Amino acid sequence: MAWYVGRRLLQMIPVFLGATLLIYAMVFLLPGDPVAALGGERGLNPAVAAQIRAEYNLDKPFLVQYLLYLQGIFTFDLGTTFSGRPVTDVMADAFPVTFQLAVMALAFEAVFGIAAGVIAGLRKGKAFDATVLVLSLLVVAVPTFVIGFVMQFVVGVKLRWLPTAVGSDVSFTSLIMPAIVLGAVSFAYVLRLTRNSVAENLTADHVRTATAKGLSRPRVVSVHVLRNSLIPVVTFLGADLGALMGGAIITEGIFNINGVGGTLFRAIQQGQSTTVVSVTTVLVIVYIVANLLVDLLYAALDPRIRYA
Amino acid sequence: MKIRRFAGFAATIAVGALALTSCASAGTDGGGSTADSSGGIVTAWGSEPQNPLIPTNTNEVGGGKIIDLVFSGLVYYDADGAAHNEVAKSIETEDAQTYTITLNEGWTFTNGEPVTSESFVDAWNYGAQLSNAQLSSYFFEGIEGFSWDEDSELTGLQIVDDTTFTVKLKQPEADFPLRLGYSAYFPLPQVAFEDMDAFGEHPIGNGPYKVASEDAWQHNVEIALAPNEDYSGDREAQNGGVTVKFYETLDGAYNDLLAGQLDVLDQVPDSAFSTLEDELGDRAVNQPAAMIQTLIIPMDLEHFTGAEGQLRRQAISMAINREEITEAIFEGTRTPADDFTSPVIDGWSDDVTGSEVLDYNAAKAKELWAQADAISPYTGTFTIGYNSDGGHQAWVDAVANSLRNTLGISAEGNPYPAFKDLREDVTNGAISGAFRSGWQADYPGLYNFLGPLYGTGAGSNDAGYSNAEFDSLLAQGSAATSVDEANEYFTQAQEVLFQDLPAIPLWYQNVTGGSADTVSNVEFGWNSVPLLYEVTKN
Amino acid sequence: MPDATTRPHQAHFFANLDQAPLEVVDSIDEGAAPASLWADAWHSLRRRPLFWISAALILLVVAVAAFPGLFTSTDPRFCELKNSLDGPSAGHPFGFDRQGCDIYARTIYGARASVLVGVLTTIVVVLVGGLIGAVAGFFGGWFDAVLSRVTDIFFAIPLVLAAIVVMQMFKESRNILTVVVVLGIFGWPQLARVMRGAVMSVKNADFVTAAKSLGASRVKTLLRHVIPNAAAPVIVYATVALGTFIVAEATLSFLGIGLPPEVTSWGADISKAQTSLRSQPSVLFYPAGALALTVLSFIMMGDAVRDALDPKARKR
User: Fold this and answer.
1) Structural domains for chain A
2) Which of C84, C262, C271 has the CB atom closest to B10's CB atom?
3) Which residues, 6 or more positions from A108, have their beta carbon under 8 angstroms from its beta carbon?
4) What are B484-526's pLDDT values in tens digits?
5) Own/partner pairs for C49-56, CB < 8 Å, 24+ apart?
6) Chain C closest-CA separation from residue B389 CA (Å)
7) Beta carbons of A263 and B424 less than 8 Å apart
8) Which ipTM was obtained for this model?
9) Nearest CB to A164: which of B222, B261, B427?
């Protein structure tokens, strides 16, 4: 087991190199001249633009830029944004709040998605099952910006139950609404995956046996059905953590959260390669660690899965 | 599924992009004063400054708003855009080329350093040096000694004594004093030159407010400003401080305003245009501003050159129903354009000869288009380039629909993902159709809407327009010694533009904002930014 | 562990001895090909009302997508601002959007691009992600290490970045396929993870061990025994994802890197409805409703197919 974990952690090195190179290349390929855009509608004088390009190494060939960036990483210098801020500062601002938000969203979708999914699976074809089907259709078909907007308006402005926006007030209370909005679509996935897995496992042999042995229904469901139903759900949730962290652009925008999604998006829009690459690199690490945890969970959920 | 969360982030970007499109912000807000703590702290909408807070390197509204509160220049602009002396005691000239500037005594920066002639001259020289790569360096272009090719001293600046210096321009420019309220011309304390990067994080100014503390600027979140107790100008703070909160979406900001978590909002989201007055009542603001949107048709675009081009340009202008679009798409938050400038600028007129080409006239448009077709039949699709990150899609679609329905031609929007992508194609002349353009004035003068945009070889002359008569009228206007005389020339210059239509004026952007009932005395300046120093907390 | 004690049991251990006469069981038609899993599934599928309802719905959506002209004679691209946000009227049952376009016509004509994007992307994602996930999960070891780490790298690519780069390459020839490529690049990693997990939990099942010990090749085992039994979560995931892909197309259009503006799609109309949210929310209702109906039909179809594939559920 320790050997397996160690090997997986070692694999992070090639992934890191591969991901940074790929992302750096993509930012390099982005259309538009980020420096010229600094001048706004008025445009920038070519002489000034050349100065700025030299300052950010943008006048050098792609591979040189990439190697300079790698060199920077080893000296803990990720460069600065066009606004002159060290990229490390930008990330230190964005990641904690986003991590908190993503974990809350994950908790929301896991708890409610699994609970509703289990009930729907146990009562397949009944009213509850149909209700949650409609609910999941709703969150899939109605865009996040609408869900977020409506919640903000109703819960925040009209009812005043929760703060409308986060801003500088990063707290559990202010993050409740954004977390629900952020987790809404994933909630639909968790719900459907759990529901079908539970429905399928209800007919499995070991469950019949357990029932035949006279075990109580709650025990059969919680120990025998649920545990074996969770593999696809856990897989999804593990991969979702990174997605929630990097993809919360809209939710962050609506609730005014200074997070990773918005930072990444602005950096892409402005063609700031060092910020884009640095942020995504951290996200890759989150993916790798989350997926490793999921793989270890597999072994716990299904004793037949073993790692050498 | 991650994908989903990107959906509809358009509103998100609208803010940032607006900051970009409105290329520059001059500013006149300010506030703060004698720490009389005459009230609570006002929270105001803003966006994260895109550059360090250095006056000569700030060319967008997010940073401009803060810079204007933290610094005081030689002059400031009042709500109507009129310039009043602030640090300057007098600005005098006889020939519109050499100016003698005398400073008021007793002004200090918040670190105690006195504001002297040197504070200005050093700051301007810093801003003008090529190697400093300051985004607003072009503001010093007209001063003697300026060079785009190498670092060179502004020899036109001469220090006479601590409170007097002279400025010699390369050529006469009558509206030079008018420009001096723009942030590029603000003074800097000596400490700035020791470490400009650090200064940009914690600017030390001489304005009505100061950055409240070392960690007052929480990037991408907010910046807290406290009244400057030593401020001695007209823009004295009437509140206990201003906290500028940075928002990514206007919808979020608007809901914050409705919930009482934000006091002053400069722009309301598109979705609230129709409900604004119901929700805010007389706290809603909707008035024309110094911003104009135009449709630029490159001078060398096929079928748009020569006599044929002139006919087609007029036809397209007349085929756009500005009234209907500003009502249906913008719910009246845009005002149909009557000229190439803005109604808030002194000298503006709604009946410049030739401006009738801006009136919707479907029959005439069809007729002109047919005449052009007689010269050379039109083929292909008329495209309108725009950046998708600025909330332009709706009106571009409406204009394209209008052209299709009226002229019976094929017309489509041509979206670019980001402002910079559009600019690149425009700058390289790679764009194969018309494209949108917006202009916000740097300072309240007619020239600022004409010279930089349509003068031969000018920096933002995206149409590639060149007309000797127009250039000469501009030069005469610039050399005029009175603003009224200058404006006469500028109006004549506009008549030339109405003939050639290098750009088709669409509408003036209104300032559409509002305030919560937690504050009073909210007034918006000529540049669409509220005068935050005047706002009082209830 | 209960699992261990149940292991010797086989599903067919309970075979219907009491119902089937022994001679039937004993007589073996040696010439008949064994009924394949898929044939079994089809046999079972035919008897499910859920299948027929969803098939009818899908057929309707496909018909609208293929022949929009049959359902409306209004031009979805003829828009007059004077009709902006007008309510329903004769010939215009859903009213008008902000641009003054007929909402009913746009909903009908939007089906083609949206359904194509949703279905094609789902197919690409299922094929690519399914294959990679299945191979990684089944073979393990180096296969798993390499394929899973490649998946991790692709996970990290932000949609906006990938979309801008790819779409810019095809700037002049943007169409539904380029959108499918972008969304496919973006969507497959998660499905690969789901497939991998499902395969890993199936590959140690008794019937797989049995197939192997009977001499079936590894590839054949994977294709015939493992994948069909691991398909359930993939089907569930894919049917929900189909809807999210349609909405994601809207995001791309919004960025100016989606379908060309002259193409009508539900996604684009849903995004455009954003500005009418406070004043006229019904503008959002119809395209979103059409999208929900489409997703519903595919989710129901997925459920029916999944049930049919599962021999245990079939017996009930």
Assistant:
1) 99-301 (1.10.3720.10)
2) C271
3) A179, A180, A183, A187
4) 899 999 999 999 999 999 999 999 999 999 999 999 999 999 8
5) C50/C300, C50/C303, C50/C304, C50/C307, C51/C301, C51/C304, C51/C305, C51/C308, C53/C300, C54/C297, C54/C298, C54/C300, C54/C301, C54/C304, C55/C301
6) 7
7) no
8) 0.84
9) B261
